[in-house]
Design a protein that fits this description.
The chain is mainly α. Helix content is 88%, strand content 0%. Helix 1 packs across helix 3. The longest helix has 47 residues. It is rod-shaped and about 70 Å long.
Length: 83
């Protein structure tokens, strides 16, 4: 019984370590995507002279999947309040 418990504990902590490692290895990619999304938003505001609300609305429609998790809630909150 002790061996089963020890193996279960060892396998669980190993699995948790691999999951944590995956999250940390994906982090630089998500940061690059966030920076890219902010640069696109900046270009949309500066070059097209759009208000922030309209720029968020346009960016919300073209955001990539992982970027949606970071920028999408703000875009959705601002973009849906169009008048």
């Amino acid at each position: 019984m002790k061996w089963i418990g020890a193996l279960l504990l060892l396998s669980t902590t190993t699995w948790a370590g691999f999951e944590w490692s995956k999250r940390l290895s994906d982090r630089p990619k998500h940061i690059r995507q966030l920076i890219n999304a902010l640069q696109i938003l900046e270009a949309e505001i500066v070059y097209s002279q759009r208000p922030l609300k309209d720029a968020f609305f346009c960016h919300r429609q073209t955001a990539a999947s992982p970027g949606k998790r970071s920028v999408y809630p703000t875009c959705y909150a601002i973009g849906t309040k169009r008048e």
